[in-house]
Amino acid sequence: MRKNRSPRRPDHDELYRIAEPQGGYFRSGQAARAGFSRKLLWHHHQKTGKFLRVAHGIYRLAQFPASGYEDLFVAWLKCGPKSAISHDSALALYDLSDVLPGRVHVTVPRTASRRRDGIRMHTNRLGSGDVVNREGLPVTSVARTIADVARAGLSEDQVARAVRDALRRGLSTREALLAEARRRGGRPARLIRLYANVEKGDW
Question: Closest Cα partner for 99 from 151, 188, 162, 142?
Fold first, then answer.
C-alpha cells in the first residue's frame, strides 16, 4: 500500500525566485509550488507580515515596495504567464497616451477565459517578438501596441501622437512600425504610414 506523501516544506528562497522578476508579486498557485499552502499564506499575511495580500489570490513579498503599476501586475497574474499587458494599458505604460483606460487591457491566448472583473481581455496570438519587458511586466511591443489600438478604434489624434512620440523618443523605429503595419493592414497600416511620414515609394 502506497504511503501518502508528506506535504512539501515551504521554501522561502524558491518563492523569492518566483516573485523577484514579477516585482515581488505572486499568485497563490505559484506559492503552492514553493510549498506554501493557503493556510501558510494566511499565516504570513496576518501574523508575520511577510506577505501582503493585494487582491484575491495575489500577494506581494513585503520586502518589495508596492509598484505604481500594481493594478497591471494583478491583472497579468490573474490572466496567466502567457498573457501580456496590451492595447490602451500598454500605450499608457509607454506614456504614449493621455487616455486612462477604465479597465486593464490584457492579450491572452485564444484558449483563455474571457471573464475577469476589471480586465478587458483580448484573445490573440502573441509571437516571441510581440512582447517585451517593461517595469517588470510583459507588455506588447510599441509597434504591436500602436497597431492594436489603431485596429481597435482609438481616435486618429491619439494614434498620431503615439506614432510620433514613439519615434521621437526612440521607443520604436520607423522600420518596426511599418513591418507591423504591413502585417496588420487596414486602418493600422493607413494611420501608421500617414503619421510615420512615409513616402509612397518607401511603402
Answer: 162
φ, ψ at 56 (rounded to 5°):
-60, 120
Interatomic CA distance for residues 19 and 34, integer angstroms: 11
In the beta sheet, which residues pair with residue 104?
119
pLDDT digits (tens, 9 = 90+) for 100-115: 889 999 999 876 566 7
> Which pairs count as long-range contacts for 75-81, CB under 8 Å and 24+ apart, including other chains?
75/104, 75/106, 75/116, 75/118, 75/119, 76/106, 76/137, 76/138, 77/22, 77/25, 77/26, 77/27, 78/27, 78/116, 78/119, 79/106, 79/108, 79/112, 79/116, 79/119, 79/121, 80/108, 80/112
- What sign has the CA pseudo-torsion 18, 93, 144, 174? negative
- List phi, psi (to 5°) of 137: -115, 145
Give residue-wise pLDDT tens across range 34-44: 999 989 998 88
